[in-house]
Structure formats: C-alpha cells, structure tokens
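Tokens as discussed.
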C-alpha cells in the first residue's frame, strides 16, 4: 500500500516535480472547472497544490491567447486532446439512447428556429456573452434541472457539447461564445473507440495506480521513488481525492465535500480541504478567503495539522491575502479529530 501511495502522489505531480502550467495540465490530462471559489477557483487551487506560487494569468493566456489549452464540458484540456474530444462531440450529436440524450434531441427539434438564431447571431456578431442573446423559444421550452428556465444558456451548452460552439474567453467570469470553426484548429478524425482508449490510458498514467479485483496495479511508466516531505492542501476536485472511494482505499482517509449537507449534519465544514504531507493524507482544514477584507480565515482544522501553518503561509502568498488575527484563529482552530 505504501508503494501504491507513493506512485499515486508522484503521478499526480504532488511531489514537487511539476514544472509550469502547460506541462502540468498536459501531465494531469485536464483540470476541472467549478464556480465555487471559497478559497480559489478549483483549477487554480489544483495548480497551486503542485506548482506553489504561480501567475494565474498564465492559465488565461494559455487558454485565450496562445490557445494551447481549451475549455469543454467543464474541463480545461490540452489542445493536443482536441481530436479525442471531437470524437466525444460527434457522439453527442449522434447518440439518442439515454434519457438525457433523448431530451437534448427533443429540445433541439422543438427549438430549431431558436438554434438557427443563436448560430446566426454568433456568426455575424460573435463572440458574445449568453446575456447578449435573446430567448426565442416563445415560452415553449421545459425547465431543466440545471438551467431552469434559462433557455439561452441551455442552447449554448447543448451546441457546445456537440462541437458547434466554443468558449473563446471570459468576461467577469462569464463565458464568451463563438462558432467552433472560427476557434478550434483543424485536426485529424479519431474514431470514438480509439479516442476512449487513448483517454483511458492517459487517465491511468496520470493516476499512477488503479484498483482491480482488490489489487493495486501500477502504470508501466510509474515511479515509486520516495516522495519528498512536502505539504499542501488539496482542492475537493483534485484528482488525488476526486474519487472518494479510491482515496479512502489508498490513503485510509474518508473524505466528502459537505457543501450541500445541512449545517447541522456536517461532520466537518462547508468547504474542507484535505492536507497532504509527503505521501499521506494526514488532516483537513477549512480555510476561507474573504475577498472584501483580503484576509484568509481558518474556520477549522482536524487531524494532524502540524504542517498546516506553513501551508497556509504559502496559500496566503499565492492569494495575496493576510491572515486573520492569530487569537481569533487559535479559537477557531480545532484539532479534535
């Protein structure tokens, strides 16, 4: 098990070996996006956990200026993965087997005129924000579990999934949309089966180990060299802990994100981050960055937190934050579990 942990931490570049934003994303395969930024947006927190202090603007440059990365399906991908992702886009256009796929096809058929309007507006006026487009469904569309009655957002997302549109920038956090043909480069066509095999291999390499029939198997390229005594906090969306069952089996560390759990029923806190020291998950902490005051607050900490203070110093420097008053922090710091 110790060997499997070392391999997993090294494969995820949490051993201090990460070199630059672009190379890190390429090695990890992708970065997950999420609007929650209690500390920092997940994509930035994942990079900080590996690179330490870095310029978050570099990620934007790689996405929107150099176009060496691209955004699709709530993930950031290396541009080298575009042929593989295009295979998934084609699948979205053709599939009609699941309830979601059937709903999407029905939505497009019922709103064919609205679809043509969106594509025409982007062709002539793009790139555009979603709010710069009109809802022309005529009130006929049904509410969606995620988008509710926001039909423009729903149409943009459906066309994006199918490869007709691309996210080409952000304005005050809102996505800028344009026609995919004007943004993405030409690529080879990869069959879906081949694309999925390549993506699965990339995931295996990035994770380092996988559990099969009760045994851990290491990727042939994996290194099980000792992991440096390095400490950091992990985003809830970090691939080391994203699969909660895998993390528990590998690190004997039970972790759940409790932001959707009623406060009275939470075991720890709203947005708690695992604390990694070397090749072990040793504790957890609940920092919160108050952007109005510029202060980083610590709402709670559990487990072995002996390395936490040094990690919080690095996090403050990355965020450009100040620590909340130590007396207040000491009251809030809990080491009970």
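Sequence:
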């Amino acid at each position: 098990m110790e060997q499997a942990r070392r391999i997993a931490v090294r494969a995820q570049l949490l051993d201090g070996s990460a070199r630059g934003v672009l190379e890190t994303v390429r090695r990890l395969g992708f970065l997950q996006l999420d609007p929650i930024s209690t500390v920092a947006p997940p994509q930035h927190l994942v990079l900080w956990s590996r690179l330490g202090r870095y310029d978050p603007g570099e990620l934007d440059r790689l996405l929107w200026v150099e176009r060496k990365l691209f955004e699709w399906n709530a993930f950031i991908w290396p541009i080298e993965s575009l042929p593989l992702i295009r295979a998934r886009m084609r699948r979205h256009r053709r599939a009609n087997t699941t309830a979601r796929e059937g709903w999407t096809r029905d939505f497009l058929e019922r709103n064919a005129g609205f679809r043509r309007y969106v594509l025409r507006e982007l062709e002539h006026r793009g790139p555009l924000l979603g709010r710069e487009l009109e809802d022309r469904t005529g009130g006929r569309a049904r509410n969606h579990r995620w988008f509710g009655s926001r039909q423009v957002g729903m149409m943009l997302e459906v066309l994006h999934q199918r490869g007709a549109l691309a996210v080409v920038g952000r304005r005050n956090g809102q996505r800028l949309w344009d026609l995919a043909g004007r943004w993405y480069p030409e690529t080879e066509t990869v069959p879906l089966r081949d694309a999925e095999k390549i993506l699965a291999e990339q995931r295996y390499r990035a994770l380092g180990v996988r559990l099969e029939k009760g045994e851990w198997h290491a990727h042939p390229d994996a290194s099980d060299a000792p992991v440096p005594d390095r400490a950091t906090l992990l985003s809830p969306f970090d691939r080391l802990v994203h699969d909660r069952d895998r993390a528990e089996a590998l690190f004997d560390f039970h972790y759940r994100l409790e932001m959707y759990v009623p406060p009275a029923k939470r075991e720890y806190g709203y947005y708690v981050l695992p604390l990694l020291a070397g090749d072990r998950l040793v504790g957890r902490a609940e920092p919160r960055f108050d952007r109005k005051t510029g202060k980083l607050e610590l709402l709670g900490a559990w487990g072995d937190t002996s390395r936490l203070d040094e990690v919080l110093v690095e996090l403050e420097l990355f965020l450009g934050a100040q620590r909340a008053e130590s007396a207040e922090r000491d009251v809030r710091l809990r080491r009970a579990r």
